[in-house]
Structures are given as structure tokens and as C-alpha cells.
């Protein structure tokens, strides 16, 4: 009975993740793509999202009197902060790449995340290397290689950014699993509490990168016109906030799925979602897929 209930909940988390992740991918590409809204501030937008995550998680925890695990200074520095920085790098690089590459190309390269999830899982001892897992990794690597070779609108910087995002994602989810799961059930971290701890670190990391790289509030050659005036800035930040709420619900679904299963399950379940996103990108944005891309 408990297994059936757990299966139903995990199925619900997967479906919620599919829906929210797909909507968020289209939202991000429409907002940041050069040929669309062209909001060339992906790091600032990522920081706004994390700031919203931090605020919402704190409100919910206070409202429901949620118990929060207290980390020692050593554990916070060695476990929580690295996880928050890895998450910030994953999201920031992923959003920045969408300024330069098509959504379909982004999705296929990001689908290499299971490779990095498995490699880091081997390193941390969450999974043991088997022939089946090695075969899966090899197949994904071949598929990604074909896609890169067949991409009609290839951009080196965009490719590097999304590849770094995939690597950071593999590290992020393994560190998150390490934080959330414990042999002592009373010491296990809830998904909401995980967001409570990680969001401020992500916000500080992303905002620091934005202020250093993008300089969103300074006038310079590549400055965004969407923050020129107070009214335009408020509208732009409000649009970013919508994505922040979507991202909060999506991340919560991901964390509950990891808690109920594992990071490997999350990665494998994401493959069919990515096929859906690629299909939608072809219909919505007119992305061109070559024969090699289809094979990939």
C-alpha cells in the first residue's frame, strides 16, 4: 500500500515537473532570445528567481511552522555552500546560453546531464558502475556528438555555456541528494527546507555575477534598454518574477522527486520531457533539425 502511494506521488511530481519545466523553457527562450524579447540579462533574471525562491520558502516555512535542520559552520561551508554555488552555476549558464543558441540545441546538449549525474554518483558512492549504466552514458555521448555536428545555428559560446550548465547540474543534484537524505530519518532535509538553505546562496552568487559581468544598472555599450527607466524596470522585473514563481514550483517538484527516488531517476525521467521541448521548439520557433540532429 505504501509503495502504491509513493508511486502515485512520484508520478504526480514527474508530471508537474514536465509541465512546469516545459513552460519555463519556452518562457526563458522567449524572454532572452536575441530574435524575441531580447532581455540580455540572464544572470540578473536568475538572481531575481532565486530571490523569489528565498522569500516564498521563508513565508511557507514560517506559516506552517516547518522544522529546519541547523547546520554546523563546518557543514554549512563544506556541504550547503558548494551545493548552492553549483545550483547557481547550473541555472545561470543555462539561461545565458539561451541568448545565443536555439531552444532545441540547448535542450539536446542539456540532456547530457544524466551522464554527469551518473559520473558524480559514482564519485560520491550513490551508484555503482555497471555495464548498463556505462552503455547509457556512451549512448548519450554519441547522441550529443551527432547533435553538435549537425546543428545548423551552432554557436561556440552558447555550446560551452550549456555544457557547463549540464556538468554543474550533475554536481548540483548529487550534492542536493546528499543534503536531503540521511540514514537517520529525523535528520533528513525536506525539499522546502533545502530551498530555504540554498536560495540565499544562489541569489548572492547570481547577483554578484550579474553586477560584475552584466552591469545591469550602469550605462554602457551593451546595456539593456529594459532597465532605462523606473517604469520599464518595474515591468521587466515583474516579468522576471513570473518566471521565478514557475521556477519555484518546478524546483519543488524536482526536490520531492529526488527525495522519493534518486537523482538518476530524475535524469532518466527528463529524457521524454526533452523530446517534448524539442518538438515544441520546432513548432513555436521554427528551429531547424538536420538529419544528424534527429539521429542525436
From TrEMBL:
For the keyword Lipid biosynthesis, the answer is no
Pfam families listed in its UniProt record:
TPT
Localization per record: Membrane
Q: Which terms are listed as keywords in the entry?
A: Membrane, Transmembrane, Transmembrane helix
Residue intervals of the Sugar phosphate transporter domain: 12-296
Tell me the leader sequence span: none
Predominant localisation class: membrane
- Protein name (Swiss-Prot/TrEMBL): Triose-phosphate transporter family-domain-containing protein
Amino acid at each position: 500500500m505504501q509503495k502504491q502511494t509513493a508511486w502515485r506521488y512520484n508520478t504526480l511530481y514527474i508530471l508537474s515537473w514536465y509541465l512546469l519545466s516545459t513552460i519555463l523553457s519556452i518562457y526563458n527562450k522567449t524572454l532572452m532570445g536575441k530574435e524575441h524579447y531580447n532581455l540580455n540579462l540572464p544572470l540578473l533574471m536568475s538572481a531575481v528567481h532565486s530571490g523569489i525562491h528565498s522569500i516564498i520558502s521563508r513565508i511557507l516555512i514560517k506559516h506552517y511552522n516547518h522544522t529546519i535542520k541547523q547546520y554546523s559552520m563546518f557543514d554549512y561551508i563544506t556541504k550547503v555552500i558548494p551545493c548552492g554555488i553549483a545550483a547557481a552555476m547550473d541555472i545561470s549558464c543555462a539561461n545565458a546560453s539561451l541568448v545565443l543558441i536555439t531552444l532545441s540545441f540547448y535542450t539536446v546538449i542539456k540532456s547530457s546531464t544524466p551522464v554527469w549525474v551518473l559520473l558524480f554518483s559514482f564519485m560520491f558512492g550513490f551508484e555503482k558502475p555497471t555495464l548498463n549504466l556505462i552503455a547509457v552514458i556512451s549512448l548519450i555521448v554519441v547522441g550529443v556528438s551527432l547533435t553538435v555536428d549537425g546543428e545548423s545555428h551552432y554557436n561556440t559560446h552558447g555550446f560551452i555555456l550549456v555544457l557547463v550548465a549540464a556538468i554543474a547540474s550533475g554536481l548540483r543534484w548529487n550534492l542536493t541528494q546528499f543534503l536531503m537524505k540521511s540514514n537517520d530519518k529525523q535528520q533528513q532535509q525536506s525539499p522546502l527546507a533545502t530551498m530555504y538553505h540554498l536560495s540565499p546562496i544562489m541569489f548572492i552568487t547570481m547577483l554578484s555575477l550579474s553586477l560584475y559581468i552584466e552591469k545591469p544598472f550602469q550605462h554602457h555599450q551593451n546595456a539593456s534598454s529594459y532597465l532605462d527607466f523606473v517604469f520599464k524596470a518595474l515591468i521587466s522585473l515583474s516579468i522576471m518574477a513570473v518566471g521565478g514563481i514557475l521556477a519555484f514550483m518546478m524546483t519543488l517538484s524536482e526536490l520531492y522527486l529526488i527525495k522519493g527516488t534518486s537523482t538518476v531517476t530524475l535524469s532518466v525521467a527528463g529524457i521524454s520531457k526533452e523530446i517534448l521541448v524539442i518538438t515544441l521548439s520546432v513548432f513555436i520557433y521554427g528551429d531547424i533539425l538536420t538529419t544528424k540532429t534527429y539521429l542525436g
